[in-house]
Structure prediction request, 303 residues.
Amino acid sequence: MLKIPADWIDRMTLGCFNTATTVFNLLPAAEAYRLGHHLVRLWLTLDRDHRRIIEKNLELALHLKAGSPASRQLQAAIIQHLGFNLSEFFLLQNPAWRRLLKKNLQITGLEHLLKAQQEGSGAIIISAHLGNWELAGFLSTLMQRPITTVAKPIKNKPRLYAAIEKSRIDVGFIPVNKSGSAGTLVRNLKKGDIIALLVDQRVRRRLRIWAPFFSYQVPTIPSPAVLARLSGSPIIPAFTTRIRPLHHQIVIEEPIFVPHSGNSREVVADCTKRLNLLIEKHIRKTPEQWFWPHNRWRTINSD
Prediction:
């Protein structure tokens, strides 16, 4: 069987990315959103494994029985939301759409970030895969400094990853490689920088601690609490939700300060539990806007 070289695959994938970007940006906004919706619906029609993951997650977290009208209705809303996110991902490659999305963005609680900046303490923004989380990069404009975020390179696709990385930089992020990033993040925080972390997904065995999430103990990354304890920076929760197409809001909550004294393991565990419960609260407000295809509860029966 002919094996296609990895470099060719990378070039073809980048070509698909560029073609999709062109197509979405040639369409009126309503048609772009409709196309994104259709593409995600097609994906989940063909990819039954991820469709089953969504259904299972809704049953575990929200107690919606698989196949029930309530489950099917929420799944339809989830598919629409994912389609809208896909559309906006490609629209964000265009400076004109970036400006419009930024203009339409409503922000509450910005004073919490501004205070941390004024005090030079740095800040750890924590968020979840809720709404269009990429738009949090627009906060960098208001802070007048970029926001550092952790990113994992796409294996064997350096050209595609570079294109995606550029789009994040254009929004206002500075991506740093996930591997070996802890020391860099602590140094940045001590200099007064702001970092942003998405902390709602499953984490590798060697990095995890267990914390409750929708009534289940799940493997959770403790990085926000650890970084806050090492740097002295506050944790500032911020969550993005879509109000309607092209209009979003970011809610920034009061800072969480991690004590320097006390048993380190207990302090980190308590803070991580608190963050999980906070994320859960925001997901329950707009459940259709969370990323349900991720197999968050995979380890319940296997670990």
Remarks:
- Residues 6-300 form one domain.
